[in-house]
């Protein structure tokens, strides 16, 4: 498939999506969003793919919405769009909360790692926020940006950001839109870990390839669903669902392989079934 706004590659069971508008610091457009969804759909259907990485080409991750596109937004047209049924749903069996623009990332059945190689602002920050795991290069810079554009916390930012960093840090990040370094982002819990610019790609791929080759794809799929949907559940419901999922796990091929490779002291050969 030919793309205009992204590139993709697959290596060692890792599917990488690269935002590819380096001359605009990979600024987000509707066309880019559609291509990201197409690529993730392709990765989700490829049994050889176990992990997805989302990153940027050039010196940026995503500088936010393309300012030329922002300048042409019609308020009435946007209001009409917001009254439509959920759009960009990836998996309609998931709760409606995860069927809107950007919020569909959790319903992708494979883990998504945001490899934040440079500035991530506005929609760029939100794209990384809806990924499952975030790594940043030391030179990465973060900003919510919205308050400096006369906008608000969009695409679920007000719901998820406080859950990641706490209410105080979320207020600070959204109200001031100040720039946050990679080290601060790690300290407050927005990113899992930072790496030097020189070793960034190597470290991210080492992590992704470990996930792809040493753990059960089936387990990752089920646990990702448990953790994201668990944010909407009470304790009793979460425990009940987990109990049912555990029974199903006992009859899976990956469970049998998980026991066998441990006893036989060899590398696992998980099938995802």
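^ structure tokens above, recovered residues below v
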């Amino acid at each position: 498939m030919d793309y205009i706004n992204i590139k993709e590659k697959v290596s060692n069971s890792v599917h990488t999506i690269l935002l590819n508008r380096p001359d605009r610091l990979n600024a987000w457009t509707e066309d880019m969003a559609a291509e990201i969804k197409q690529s993730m759909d392709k990765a989700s259907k490829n049994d050889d793919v176990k992990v997805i990485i989302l990153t940027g080409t050039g010196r940026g991750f995503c500088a936010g919405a393309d300012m030329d596109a922002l300048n042409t937004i019609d308020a009435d047209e946007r209001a009409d769009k917001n009254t439509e049924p959920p759009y960009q749903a990836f998996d309609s069996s998931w709760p409606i909360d995860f069927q809107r623009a950007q919020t569909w990332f959790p319903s992708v059945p494979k883990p998504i790692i945001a490899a934040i190689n440079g500035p991530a602002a506005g929609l760029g920050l939100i794209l990384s926020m809806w990924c499952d795991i975030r790594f940043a290069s030391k030179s990465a810079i973060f900003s919510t940006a919205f308050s400096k554009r006369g906008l608000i916390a969009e695409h679920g930012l007000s719901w998820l950001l406080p859950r990641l960093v706490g209410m105080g840090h979320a207020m600070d990040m959204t109200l001031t839109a100040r720039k946050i370094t990679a080290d601060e982002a790690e300290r407050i819990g927005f990113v899992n870990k930072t790496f030097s610019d020189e070793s960034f790609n190597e470290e991210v791929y080492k992590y992704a390839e470990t996930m792809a080759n040493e753990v059960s794809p089936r387990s990752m799929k089920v646990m990702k669903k448990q953790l994201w949907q668990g944010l909407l559940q009470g304790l009793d419901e979460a425990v009940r669902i987990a109990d049912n999922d555990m029974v199903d796990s006992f009859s899976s091929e990956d469970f049998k392989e998980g026991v066998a490779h441990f006893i036989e002291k060899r590398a696992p050969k998980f099938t995802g079934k």
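The longest strand covers residues 6-11.
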